[in-house]
Amino acid sequence: MKLGKKIKPTRILLHIVLIFGAFLMVAPFLWTISSSLKDMSQIFLVPPKWLPDPVTFQNYPNSLTAMPFGKAYFNSFYITGLVVFLNILTCSMAAYAFAKIRFYGSNVLFILFLATMMIPKQVTMVPLYLIMDKLGWIDTHLAIIVPAGLFNAFGVFLLRQFIRGIPNELEEAAVLDGANPLRIYWSVILPLIRPALAAFGIFSFMGIWNGFLEPLIYLSTPEKFTVPLLLNTFKGLYFTDWSLMMAGTTISIIPVIVVYIIAQKQIIEGIALTGSKG
């Protein structure tokens, strides 16, 4: 910034508002970490203490041994991995069909498909539970993997917008070379939408990893619990060990933080391009 250049009051006010908003967003996360290092006597002190005294690092190993977190982490990782893979595969195929393959009623079908995004999840919980019960999938991971992996209207919409931006000449050239639609999808479309696939995969990963409602509805055996559901078991009917819960929560968000640090560029681009593609 050049010396002598005046700083507008509105710009100062904007930065103050942004800093305050950033603090509001990060404060719960900082409080979680602080509480994970406290003993129970410090959790509900009034006024609250941000810095634990003394620091109790033992909460972390205690939280991991109090519950079968090793199994829960395995469950969460493989469920999330399968759902993300299925989402990328099925959503990209459906997006390609809606974007490039012309068939009777495609636009109407796509609108109806998007309309499902306006239906609250609470409306479909009971019918979906009955379907899972008829299939014998209650208390199995299939009830979590299959519906989430095979249907994601947002993913189809996002990828369709990217695929529509691919020039038709590339597809026509592939047809002249004898490629069928499946070959075009695999060899032409997928390589060109890798940024969109990466962004969508990250969104899907974070949503499934943090998912709580579906495991709560369908799972009842502790050995099949995911990490968010197992954390809920620290909350008892008469007593909640908040120190261990906060320690377990802090550990559980490490994979999400790692994914964000590694792929923050794709996340930001995905958010920006979602709004810019028409």
Automatic annotation (TrEMBL):
<protein>
    <submittedName>
        <fullName>Sugar ABC transporter permease</fullName>
    </submittedName>
</protein>
<feature type="transmembrane region" description="Helical">
    <location>
        <begin position="184"/>
        <end position="209"/>
    </location>
</feature>
<dbReference type="InterPro" id="IPR035906">
    <property type="entry name" value="MetI-like_sf"/>
</dbReference>
<feature type="transmembrane region" description="Helical">
    <location>
        <begin position="12"/>
        <end position="31"/>
    </location>
</feature>
<keyword id="KW-0813">Transport</keyword>
<keyword id="KW-1003">Cell membrane</keyword>
<keyword id="KW-0472">Membrane</keyword>
<comment type="similarity">
    <text>Belongs to the binding-protein-dependent transport system permease family.</text>
</comment>
<dbReference type="GO" id="GO:0005886">
    <property type="term" value="C:plasma membrane"/>
</dbReference>
<keyword id="KW-1133">Transmembrane helix</keyword>
<dbReference type="Pfam" id="PF00528">
    <property type="entry name" value="BPD_transp_1"/>
</dbReference>
<dbReference type="InterPro" id="IPR000515">
    <property type="entry name" value="MetI-like"/>
</dbReference>
<feature type="domain" description="ABC transmembrane type-1">
    <location>
        <begin position="73"/>
        <end position="263"/>
    </location>
</feature>
<feature type="transmembrane region" description="Helical">
    <location>
        <begin position="142"/>
        <end position="163"/>
    </location>
</feature>
<keyword id="KW-0812">Transmembrane</keyword>
<feature type="transmembrane region" description="Helical">
    <location>
        <begin position="108"/>
        <end position="130"/>
    </location>
</feature>
<feature type="transmembrane region" description="Helical">
    <location>
        <begin position="242"/>
        <end position="263"/>
    </location>
</feature>
<dbReference type="GO" id="GO:0055085">
    <property type="term" value="P:transmembrane transport"/>
</dbReference>
<feature type="transmembrane region" description="Helical">
    <location>
        <begin position="77"/>
        <end position="99"/>
    </location>
</feature>
